[in-house]
Amino acid sequence: MKKILSFAALIVLFNSCQHATENNGDMNLSALNKLKAGNERFAEDSPVHPDETLKRKQELKKEQHPFAVVVSCSDSRVPPELIFDQGLGDLFIIRTAGNVIGTYEVGSIEYAVEHLHCKLVIVLGHQSCGAVKAFLESKGEKHQDHIQSIVDYIGSEQEVTSIVDSLKKNPLLAVKLNVKHGVKLLKNSTPVLKPLVDKAELNIIGAYYNLDNGKVSFEE
Ligand SMILES: [Zn+2]
């Protein structure tokens, strides 16, 4: 009887270890590597959906320690938790159409960096971004609604407006320039982000999501 119990206990132990490995197997990877590994799982259609258990929910009741900030588009095809195969408490996410960044967004990022100690910020653009398309097709006409503020943000980057005609033929480049704009804006944001970037205590990286294959490429 004792032997049977020990065997049963071993099976329980084995199963719980396996569970822990599934959920935390990449805990030792750097934040960027964790995102890369998660996206690889997603793109290969083999996500593990980590950190969605009741245990994880309980662990997060008192505090959160997300390992990265992701600024992404609100587009329904680009949900960061899914495309990076992460779960509860893993990512601090800011989403706006066209991943545009204004005062509220910077404040949210500052909170994650100062108070939650995130050391990595990703600005994520994506293929076929409607907000970038709206800018490219605006032809100088003003929208009568608040969408105009998104168009204005995308057009506020000199590098974008100076080549807008060629960007109409190359919307992918327009998306990438919009990401670059966001990265530059955050890297120069004072009083919180710029000093940390200058001291190499904070990494801000642009990234691009490909709708065709589900892969994220990072500009390092
Ligand atoms: Zn978009």
Description:
The protein has about 220 residues and is an alpha/beta fold. The protein has one domain: Beta-carbonic Anhydrase, Chain A (3-Layer(aba) Sandwich), CATH 3.40.1050.10. The protein is built from eleven helices and five strands. It has helices at about 1-25, 30-45, 55-60, 80-85, 105-115, 130-135, 145-155, 160, 165-170, 170-185, 195-200; strands at about 70-75, 90-95, 120-125, 205-210, 215-220. The protein has a five-stranded mixed beta sheet with strand order 2-1-3-4-5, with helices on both faces. The protein starts with a helix and ends with a strand. The model is unreliable at about 1-25 (pLDDT under 50). Zinc ion binds next to helix 6.
Summarize the topology:
Elements: H1 2-24, H2 31-43, H3 54-59, E1 68-73, H4 80-83, E2 91-96, H5 103-114, E3 120-126, H6 130-136, H7 147-155, H8 158-161, H9 164-169, H10 171-187, H11 193-198, E4 203-209, E5 216-219
Parallel strand pairs: 1-2, 1-3, 3-4
Antiparallel strand pairs: 4-5
The protein binds zinc ion.
Zinc ion is lined by residues 73, 75, 98, 126, 129-131.
Enzyme class: lyase
Binding site for Zn(2+): 73, 75, 126, 129
Keywords: Lyase, Metal-binding, Signal, Zinc
Main sheet: strands, sense, barrel: 5 strands, mixed
Radius of gyration: 21 Å
* Strand portion: 5-15%
Q: What is the count of structural domains?
A: 1
Sketch the topology as an H/E string, one letter per element. HHHEHEHEHHHHHHEE
Major beta sheet, strand line-up: 2-1-3-4-5
What ranges have pLDDT less than 50 throughout 5 or more consecutive residues? 1-25
DSSP summary, beta strand count? 5
Overall CATH architecture: 3-Layer(aba) Sandwich
Helix fraction by DSSP (H/I, runs of at least 4): 40-55%
How far from one another are the termini? Answer: 59 Å
Strand pairing plus helix content: what structural class?
alpha/beta
CATH class (first level) name? Alpha Beta
Per CATH, what is the topology? Answer: Beta-carbonic Anhydrase, Chain A
**What form results from the Cα inertia axes?**
globular
* SS field, number of helical segments: 11
Signal peptide: 1-20
Pfam family, one: Pro_CA
Family: Belongs to the beta-class carbonic anhydrase family.
Binding site for Zn(2+): 73, 75, 126, 129
